[in-house]
Structure formats: structure tokens, C-alpha cells
Design goal:
This protein is α+β, with helices and mostly antiparallel strands. It contains three helices and four strands. This is ABM domain-containing protein.
Length: about 100
């Protein structure tokens, strides 16, 4: 586990976001747009991008192919991600990067 993306291999990202009081539904709408974008042809390096909610807390599961630098850059450049960053709807955000364990 690392706070910064590893430089090689398939990367799995686990992110946690907690909405500010009364802002969870609004944050959910923005996250749904980010999920749509990440799972579209706009983000070819993103293999999987999923989001789950429990109350005001959201968990994201992301997988990127071998070119993690391009995958993360591509994701962060998209309008839905930029809208999330600018929204000010979160009170906590945590992002952890992992290398996928090779399949046997």
C-alpha cells in the first residue's frame, strides 16, 4: 500500500470520501458522473471504476492497466473529476494505491 501510485504493474486504487453534512446526495450525483466517465471510452486506461455508498461515506474501487501514469492523468483531466475537486462537498478524502498481486 502507498499514498502515491506505484510506477509499474496493474494498479488498484481504494478511495474513501465522506460528504459534508447534508451534501451526500449532491456528492453522489457527481460521483455517478465520474463513474460514467471512467467506464467510458474517454478513459481507456481505466479497467474498472466502481462506487458504493453507506450514509455519508463513499468508497471507490478503481483498476488501471500497466500505464498507471497515463491512467491516473487521464482520469484526473476529465470534467467529472474536476467537478468533484471543485465542489467542496467532502469533509474527508483518503486514497490508497496498491499493486495487484499476480495471478497464479
Amino acid at each position: 500500500m502507498a499514498d502515491q501510485a506505484p510506477s509499474s504493474g496493474k494498479i488498484v486504487v481504494f478511495a474513501r470520501a465522506v460528504a459534508k453534512e447534508g451534501k451526500a446526495d449532491e456528492l453522489q450525483r457527481l460521483l455517478q458522473e465520474a463513474v460514467r466517465s471512467a467506464n467510458s471510452d474517454k478513459e481507456p486506461y481505466t479497467l474498472t471504476y466502481r462506487c458504493a455508498r453507506h450514509g455519508d461515506e463513499f468508497r471507490l474501487f478503481e483498476e488501471y492497466d500497466q500505464d498507471i501514469e497515463q491512467g491516473i492523468k487521464s482520469h484526473m483531466a476529465q470534467e467529472p473529476f474536476q467537478n468533484l475537486i471543485k465542489s467542496g462537498l467532502t469533509k474527508e478524502v483518503e486514497i490508497k494505491y496498491y499493486n495487484e498481486v499476480a495471478k497464479l
